[in-house]
Amino acid sequence: MSFHPRMYASVQGFEPLCAVRCLSFDQMTIDHWRVRVRAQAGGRYVSMHPRFVFILDGRQLSLTTDRQAAPQICACCYIPGGLEVWGRMAQSGELRHLDLHLSHRRLLQITGPDTPLHRPVFLPEAGVLAGLTALLTEETDRPCRSAQHTERLAEALIVEFFHHARTMTRPYSAQQAAFADVALYVRRNMEQRISVDQLATLSCMSRTGFNREFRAAMGTSPYQWVMQMKIAHAKQLLKQGVPFVQVADATGFADQAHFNRVFKAATGLAPGFWIKEQSSGAVGPNLQDIST
């Protein structure tokens, strides 16, 4: 079955230098972008599918999932589906990047159930990933391997990405234990409006300290993280045919209109359109790097 990722982007200062070069596989695509960048170019991105971005030629990109938090400098990253990301390039010049888009189901098949896929991962250096990334980039330009061979390389890059991330990330054992309790509390109280103060109290922290530690450990703000969990729960209810108004109640939104706004901001689609596309399996073209 064909797979067509949809990336909603609002960007400024990026000019494509050539057509994007793509490789397509079962529930996965690989895109090689080459663009000209003006100084301080940036944009907002959101995709309904998980994706990996590898910045080529030793360059780095400033990324954040929370505009109130300091951006992180990264050479490569993993972004869960439905998560808004803001990016910025400080210097002008040519920029190339390799993007892997795939369905959540395919990603889970590759990584297994023990890999946390609900939070973003930003890596400041590509390290050992550079070799695999270079092979895949060359394959988009001048294919010389079989499709099956290239697909296995992409799978290996994903597995190695998370292994590399684990070796680079400092332990957060105490915080992770506290945040596990937070996750359990959110799952048990989906129908409630959950405040950051409530979560900070649950974790025995001040609001300021909780925000700081949570962002450091999870890569996003507590509010956005709660919204991600609520939207994920809403998707399951929508797939089961639960009416919109009941989904809004079950996920703690003020009303259906509020739910619709948040859902569209998170996924790029209104709930009704999202359901139709889930049913049809066609999610449209990749709209990444479309300037506005």
TrEMBL record:
Per UniProt, the keywords (alphabetical) are:
DNA-binding, Transcription, Transcription regulation
Please give the Pfam families that the UniProt record associates with this protein: HTH_18
Where is each HTH araC/xylS-type domain found?
180-277
Q: Is Ribosomal protein given among the entry's keywords? A: no
Tell me, what is one Gene Ontology molecular-function annotation carried by this entry?
sequence-specific DNA binding
Alphabetical list of PROSITE patterns matching this protein: HTH_ARAC_FAMILY_1, HTH_ARAC_FAMILY_2
InterPro entries per the UniProt record, alphabetical: AraC_XylS_family_regulators, Homeodomain-like_sf, HTH_AraC, HTH_AraC-typ_CS
**Keyword Transcription regulation set for record:** yes
Q: Which protein are we looking at?
A: HTH araC/xylS-type domain-containing protein
